[in-house]
Amino acid sequence: MPGHVLEVEDLWVKYYTLSGVVHAVSGVSFKLRRGEMLAVVGESGSGKSTLAYALMNMVPKPGKIVRGRVLLGGTDLLTLTPEELRRVRGSRISIVFQDPFTTLDPLRRVVDQFTEFLMEHGLDKAAALRVAREYTEAVGLPGRVLESYPHQLSGGQKQRVAIAMAISLNPEVVIADEPTTALDVIVQKQIMDLIDDVRRKYKSSFILITHDLALALERADTVMVMYGGYVMEYADKSELVRDMRHPYTRALFESLPKLGQRGLPSFLPGYPPDLRNPPSGCVFHPRCPLAREKCRAELPQLAEVSKGHYVACHYAGVVG
Amino acid sequence: MRLAHVFRDAYIATGLAIIIVFVVLALLADVIAPYSPVESVGAPLRPPSPEHIMGTDNLGRDIFSRVVYGSRIVLAIVALSIALSGFVGTLVGLVSGYLGGLLDRVLSFVMDSIYAFPSLILAIALSVALGPSPVNAAVAIAVVYVPTYFRMIRGQVLSVKNEGFIEQARVLGLPPSRIVVRHILPHVSRTMMVVFSMNSADAILTEAALSFIGLTVQPPTPDWGFDLYKGRGFVLDGKWWLMAYPGLCITLLALGFALVSEGVSRITGARLR
Q1: Least packed by Cβ within 10 Å: which of A259, B20, B177, B248?
Q2: DSSP state of A147
Q3: What is the pLDDT of residue B270?
Q4: Segment 139-198 of chain B within 8 Å of chain A by CB
């Protein structure tokens, strides 16, 4: 398909722990257009971070990608040799982590870490320095930041450095794993604005991993809601806002505080499932207000309810 | 940890002073020693006197000259063994800790097996097997101390490995060799310092023990441990100086290293024992 920079097909990831097999990601598929921002929304333990690692083909042990394909511009990242993979990481697909306080080596200056990375991907010293300067400026940091040690920077500045490094080789896909969770609200907005800017300027595609549905609805083009390792609902943002089909998506939405609302927003009782021992049938049924006999017995498949709008629920057409 | 900081520590300053005195003795032995260490230069078994400040031994050799020249052997063997064990132990610890998996288990098992031996017995056994010579003694001592470096460094690598910046380096596509050398090694260097200084005092004593039973040099080469051994028979006749001076030197040098070690672990805040 032309126009798709990333195609994920039927991805399954499991962790083989001593206390059992954790079914972390189960059958996730999606396609990412050039310049698109996809938000992957889910609670802790929904598999969204594991998905991020799987896209880089670096699921930590004892995790294993048991099935699926991750096609980046036609190359399946899951079949590459470690050396080929190393060359792809950072240059064609990169990631910005949640906690900017730990992502820089405290013993070395920013510029050394930045140019080291660029030179490892084939730039010479002068070019690396030029690129580092250019992107530091592009993320709105003063040039002196390059000469600094990480402890001299604020959290927001460190996150900007991380973003600058992630985009500096103009990768096709940038994954942002909860990029603003460790930062305070004002800085969150600045960082998200920066990501929007960067996306427009460099036409890179972003995958925003977040637990915050509000943030996803505000910033993304498409939204994928995950629960218990499965995709629950997947649609364009505008379509989703207009017509939320899955009871889980609705529950998440209902739990957001809204302007003018009296009293507390409603919340969803219960806890995410134990993925070593997932519930039978639909993984969401123990917490679902609409659960019926069929939900306990049968796993709902992701089905297209209208163009580009996918829902995995037996009663997606019924509820309204 | 500034360098000035390091020297201001009383333990380190004293220890270094002692070590430096011996290093100077070793380097300038030709100038400092008044006589040849291997030739008879006076009456045998004379107590300390103005001509022979530490007396003479049973062959009429000047003990002071023998002590001065003897420092060369000790320091050379200790330096070589520390360098060897530090290099090998650190390298293997880094690789094993970073890569993990089966390799790590096998290496840990081998190192633990070596560590389980009483160190002196193992050093003696290896020395005997390799044959008496200064280089072989150094190798034997090095083998004994490799596991200490390995265990410490590996433990540090395991904790540094999980830091965010290592993960960041991996997602940026840096090769493992570079991650280990540029991102992990600097973080374990402090531990290396501590183990380094800690082992050196032990290494002195092990060296002295090997010398004592004649596993380092051949007579008449001057050597503290071996002179100590030979002087042993004369003590009961009241000829204490044959044994006292080499023994004192061994003790002082070991004390010097022990003081440095204590100081280093104090200022790095690392208590590794």
Answers
A1: A259
A2: G
A3: 53
A4: 163-165, 167-175, 178, 182-183, 186-187
Is the bond leading into B37 cis (omega within 30 degrees of zero)?
A: no
One-letter amino acid of A217: L
pLDDT for the residue numbered B75: 93
- CATH topology for A4-81+93-99+173-180+209-258+267-286+307-311 is Rossmann fold (3.40.50)
> Is some CB atom of chain B closer than 8 A to the CB atom of A21?
no
Distances from the Cα of B231 to the Cα of B29, B37, B236, B244, B245, angstroms: 22, 15, 10, 9, 10
In this structure, is residue B273 part of a structural domain? no
- Interface with B, mutate which of A84, A105, A113 (most B CBs under 10 A): A105
Helix or strand (DSSP H, E) at A26 = strand A20-33
Q: Three-state SS for A28?
A: strand
Instruction: Indicate whether A1 pLDDT > 50.
Output: no
Three-class DSSP category at A67: strand
Torsion of CA A231, A237, A242, A245, to 10 degrees: 0
CB contact under 8 A, B178 and A91: no
Q: Is A250 at the interface with chain B, CB within 8 A?
A: no
In a domain, B176, yes or no: yes
The answer to whether the CB of A47 falls within 8 A of the CB of A13 is yes
Instruction: Please identify among residues 40-99 of chain A the ones whose CB lies closer than 8 Å to any CB of chain B.
Output: 56, 58, 86-91, 94-95, 97, 99
**pLDDT tens digits, one per residue of A266-299:** 888 888 888 988 998 899 999 988 888 889 988 9
Q: Between chains, do B165 and A56 touch, taking CB under 8 Å as contact?
A: no
Instruction: List chain A domain ranges.
Output: 4-81+93-99+173-180+209-258+267-286+307-311
- Rounded to whole angstroms, how far apart are CA atoms A280 and A234? 22
CA–CA gap between residue A90 and residue B174 (Å, rounded): 9
Q: Is the dihedral of CA B28, B139, B253, B220 positive or negative?
A: negative
What does the block give as tokens for A154? 């604020």
Interface check A106 vs B, CB under 8 A: yes
- Using alpha carbons, list the distances in angstroms from residue B209 to B141, B223, B227, B245: 11, 11, 12, 16
Contact A120 B178 (CB under 8 A): yes
Domain assignment present for residue B145? The answer is yes
Cβ contacts from A onto B, under 8 A? 57
Residue range of the domain that includes B169:
3-268
Please report residues of B whose CB lies closer than 8 A to that of A161. none
Chain-chain contact of B172 with A107 (C-beta, under 8 angstroms): no
ipTM of this complex: 0.82
Residues B33-83: tens digit of each pLDDT = 888 888 888 888 888 888 888 988 888 899 999 999 999 999 999 999 999
Cβ within 8 Å, pair A120-B183: no
**Structure confidence by residue, pLDDT tens digits, A72-84:** 988 999 999 999 9
Contacts with B172 from chain A: Cβ below 8 Å:
89-90, 94, 117, 120, 165
Mean pLDDT of B237-249: 91
Whether residue B141 is contained in a domain is answered as yes
Grade residue A162 by pLDDT with cuts at 50, 70 and 90.
very high
**Which of B168, B174, B178 is facing A97, going by the closest CB pair?**
B168
